[in-house]
Specification:
422 residues, alpha+beta, Alpha-Beta Plaits, 2 domains, five-stranded antiparallel beta sheet, four-stranded antiparallel beta sheet, 12 helices, globular, disordered N terminus, oxidoreductase, lyase
Length: 422
Amino acid sequence: MSDKQDDQQDMVEISRRRLLGTAGAAGAAGLVLGAAGGAATYAAAGEPSGGGDAPALATVGAGTVPFRGAHQAGITTPLQARGHVVAFDLAPGAGRKEAVALMRRWSAAAELLMAGRPVGDGDSGVARDAGPCSLTVTFGFGASFFDRTGLVARRPAQLEPLPAFSADRLDARRSNGDLWVQIGADDALVAFHALRVIQKEAGAAAKVRWQMNGFNRSPGATARPMTARNLMGQVDGTNNPKPTDPDFDRRIFVAAGGDQPWMTGGSYAVVRRIRMLLDDWEKLPLEKQERVIGRRKSDGAPLTGGTETTKPDLDKLGSDGKPVIPVDAHARISAPEQNGGAAMLRRPFSFHDGIGPDGTPDAGLLFICWQADPLRGFVPVQRKLDRGDALSAFIRHEASGLYAVPGGPADGEYVGQRLLEG
């Protein structure tokens, strides 16, 4: 039997053991459960002896996101309350064969976790009483992965290193990596459980290069759904592309027919750890903060009036003859119409990693953006911001990564199979 057949047989056995009795009619090939079905399972494992139906989960716990589909989960999924982003490097001597086995293990584990199921007999039970809580696990490949696995010919041109920017203060130890994993959930224990499983399933094949933790507002914390705020108190994400936009897929996902067919339905993630200099920012009067951003802090509306969703009037002048939205305002410089239509789907987490020796908070934004081509999305916008964004004086880019995130797996596939075995 060939190595490939051995690996396939191992995967079948792993999937059979892990999914037996959990998927019912869905089977090991495609565990895709509705919110009620997925939510009731893991919570029922904690049912007291004596039988009876497990109590219904609250709405937050019952949320389920499918593992399989045209795109990986965690891209268009609504912002989750908790998140982890982690990069791995393949171990010395590990190559394509080890990467195949790793992605099979990770995919099998992610599918169980996202359905609210325990992973194997040795599951720690950290998330035992919770439902899926909208858990997503998303996988990507860095440029170095293709060197390590002998797949340089399949490395997309879009993975060319990002250009240097003048505001960068990048820490190489917290940047890049062979493999990248994004975890999001609406419960902190569920998110941590997924992180722990992914780390353990890496085994001897890969070691953690860096890991960062983030958070957003919890579901239900506001009277109605609202755009999230960042740690500067600003509404963040108003002009995000929407799945209902006619050109959304073209901007965010890789279309069929490209040079690398394995990336069809995939996207490119740019990840930046952006430190916010909050002490300096909070010293600014409200009016100056709003002029730096170009929007009202109270509701996110542009300074030219209207509501959060009103298009800024970039030509409007004030009584002093100057633009109402300053020429160096963040909202003006980052606007798609100011960047040849360049757009990206921003899906960040905030972070706070304690107080530094100088008494300033180590806090800011785990900036994650998605696009079909970073050379037409992130890069031109960041170049423009780098040249004159008023916000630059209050932020510092401290880590960076760029990853190819393949499309979602079909039934019977693991993430990245079309790359590794195509």
